Amino acid sequence: MQELLKVAMPKGRIYKQASKLFREAGLAIPDETDESRKLIIAVPEANMEFIMAKPVDVPTYVEYGVADIGVVGKDVLMEENRDVYELLDLGIARCRMSVIGLPDWKPVLNPRVATKYPNVASQYFRERGQQVEVIKLNGSIELAPLIGLADRIVDMVETGSTIRENGLAEHEEIFSITSRLIANRVSYRMKNNAIQALCDRLQPVIAAALAAKA
Length: 214
Ligand SMILES: Nc1ncnc2c1ncn2[C@@H]1O[C@H](COP(=O)(O)OP(=O)(O)OP(=O)(O)O)[C@@H](O)[C@H]1O
Ligand SMILES: O=P(O)(O)OC[C@H]1O[C@H](OP(=O)(O)OP(=O)(O)O)[C@H](O)[C@@H]1O
Known about the structure:
34% of the residues lie in helices and 29% in strands. It has helices spanning 13-24, 58-63, 74-80, 118-127, 143-147, 161-165, 185-190, 192-213, and strands at residues 5-10, 40-43, 48-53, 69-73, 85-89, 95-101, 112-115, 133-136, 152-157, 169-177, 179-183. The protein is elongated. Adenosine-5'-triphosphate is lined by residues 12-14, 54-56, 73, 75-76, 93, 95, 156, 158, 177. It is an enzyme of class 2 (transferase).
């Protein structure tokens, strides 16, 4: 019998796609229609335990080792910069991080940039030698340039509907995003067989999903 694997799973929009992937890999975890408020879901036949976490907290659980592995967006990994291993690109929850603003935006001195991702935004503009004032918001970021809080925003674009419906334009793409499987550094060594076995189950499912999209 392999060691118990604790997996931090993001609640919310990634869960639907991540849980489908895990089910296709043969792990009996509930789908997104399950209305249970349970935060810890045991899958005894696979000797796994799923911890239902807020997406942005997944790397924290994994770095501290209370979860051995986790599923998290590349955006959160870039922002949180936690000391974890990135094992697999799961190819799900695809979107991109971009600089967005009004279509007729003109460069100004020391512009204000609103974002949920202050570290990503600061690093992006610093690397380009542009001085900006970063303002942290927690949601509805597209409001900021519309109501004059910021000159531009750094946020995610998936279908583009939010920026279109609000008369905004995508100025620059910063990086593309998918969800990743991450591991705690110690767990990766101590529970290597179990982690490797899970990766081996997930990999063909990821490859098949990619092939179906191509
Ligand atoms: N259209 C999208 N907008 C935002 N994130 C997306 C989108 N598509 C995929 N994602 C991915 O989903 C992850 C979680 O999204 P988000 O931060 O909006 O959390 P949530 O599921 O709405 O839950 P919460 O609001 O509680 O944090 C992001 O980190 C990103 O990797
Ligand atoms: O290109 P689209 O398909 O329109 O997706 C992008 C939007 O989705 C996310 O917002 P979310 O739904 O998480 O809301 P919030 O950030 O305002 O809470 C993101 O912050 C964008 O606003």
